[in-house]
Amino acid sequence: MAFIKLYQQKLKENYAFLDMLFKERGIHWGVVTKLLCGNTIYIKELMNLGVTEMHDSRISNLKKIKKLNPNIQTVYIKPPSKLNIKKIVAFADVSFNTEIYTIQMLSQEAKRQNKIHKIIIMIEMGDLREGVLGEELMSFYEQVFSLPNIEIRGIGTNLNCLSGVMPSQDKLIQLSLYKQLIEVKFNVKIPWVSGGTSVAIPLILKNARPMAVNHFRIGEALFFGKDLFTGETIEGMHHDVFELFAEIIEITEKPNSPTGELGENVAGNTYEIDKNVDLSQTSLRAILDFGLLDMQPQYLLPKDHSITIIDSSSDMTVIDITNSDKKYKIGDLVSFNLQYMGALYLLNSDYIEKTII
């Protein structure tokens, strides 16, 4: 069985880096745990670091967090669906919202459960995913701020999640202005202005964040140390908190091109033979014990840079080891660094063992 390792010390150092970054600037922050797919072993590791606020888009994951530690503040980071209102009030202390009808249902359910449910009103700022339009924000706020058992914890926005719109100082200033307008018009205080996710960290490092933006939701930077503007690793952080290991179950010298009539494979793809390739050429191929049920191969980065990933079927992945200086044999482990989506697929797979080092 292939397995994924989490390196405890690297995670600890990434967390310490971010915690210092935010505390020095008076910023509140929570860890986005959706990458962990509810894995309790890894969630406990976050709790051991001292994380007090966890964000997720799956109610089942928030339920696990609350079971492990009821004192963790849980945040549901997408607009609630009607069918899940009861569970959201039960297991999420805070939820992101964009619809008055939904907030009215949350209010009614919170009253039934004798709870105060906190909400963050999400504002559309160009990425065209969830968010109230800016010109409708005042009217929206007016309709929800007096609902019973609802506390408006803050306003926020999501960028770079759908259309790839990057955060900028101008956009965060605009978000700050919405806070000021609400506070002046309704004579209230908005505790949080939630300025986004890991993609905003470069702005924080450059001190380009407006002071009013005082809350962030961080996942990818914690686990991958990545600057999402440049694609590089942030200085002082680790990119390899996670690592995949897969066992070689076959090694054979085989032709470079298939033979026979070609049709679609299991993934719906059709192999095209390169007419410039010498069909008599061969390569040394190895088969690994994981496949498309577990991940998508484009998100894997072999640590042995001479290896080429050829393709995957449902349960197996074929690699070319012809150019490797290492003399691989049956039973050897091949290791991979992971991109964010690669880790997400693997952690969601029941067929990949999860371990801690």
From TrEMBL:
UniProt key word Isomerase: yes
Cofactor list: pyridoxal 5'-phosphate
Coiled coil feature spans: none
Signal sequence bounds: none
UniProt cross-references to SUPFAM superfamilies, sorted A to Z: PLP-binding barrel (SSF51419)
GO cellular component terms attached to this protein's record: cytosol
Keywords tagged on the record: Isomerase, Pyridoxal phosphate
Pfam families: Ala_racemase_N
Key word Transmembrane helix present: no
Domain Alanine racemase N-terminal: residue ranges: 51-225
GO molecular function: alanine racemase activity; pyridoxal phosphate binding
PANTHER family: ALANINE RACEMASE, LYSINE RACEMASE
Protein name: Predicted amino acid racemase
Organism: Flavobacterium cucumis
